[in-house]
């Protein structure tokens, strides 16, 4: 979870993620973790800036040979 997603927007300082969306995200992550667990896998969840968290996780795991990511699509107004 990137803390920057829970700050106010540049315009009007409205929250990017309100309480209802946050609840939905948390429930979705919990469900995904439970589904993966039933299939013999797991889900790593961290809070922080992705550029920091991923580097720390790679260092912690030590045997990472590749990292794949998906960039968030942003609207252009």
From TrEMBL:
It comes from the Eukaryota. Residues 1-77 form the Photolyase/cryptochrome alpha/beta domain. The keyword NAD does not apply. GO terms for molecular function: damaged DNA binding; deoxyribodipyrimidine photo-lyase activity; FAD binding. PROSITE patterns: PHR_CRY_ALPHA_BETA. Transmembrane segments: none annotated. Keywords: Chromophore. The keyword Nucleotidyltransferase does not apply. One of its GO terms (biological process) is photoreactive repair. InterPro entries: Crypto/Photolyase_N_sf (IPR036155), Cryptochrome/DNA_photolyase_1 (IPR002081), DNA_photolyase_N (IPR006050), Rossmann-like_a/b/a_fold (IPR014729). It holds the Pfam family DNA_photolyase. PANTHER family: CRYPTOCHROME, CRYPTOCHROME DASH. This is CRYD protein. The lineage of its organism: Eukaryota, Metazoa, Chordata, Craniata, Vertebrata.
């Amino acid at each position: 979870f990137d803390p920057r997603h829970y700050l106010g927007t540049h315009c009007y300082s409205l929250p990017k993620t309100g309480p209802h969306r946050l609840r939905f995200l948390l429930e979705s992550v919990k469900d995904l973790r439970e589904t993966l667990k039933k299939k013999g896998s797991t889900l790593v969840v961290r809070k922080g800036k992705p550029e920091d968290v991923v580097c720390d996780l790679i260092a912690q795991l030590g045997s990472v040979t590749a990292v794949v990511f998906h960039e968030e699509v942003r609207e252009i107004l």
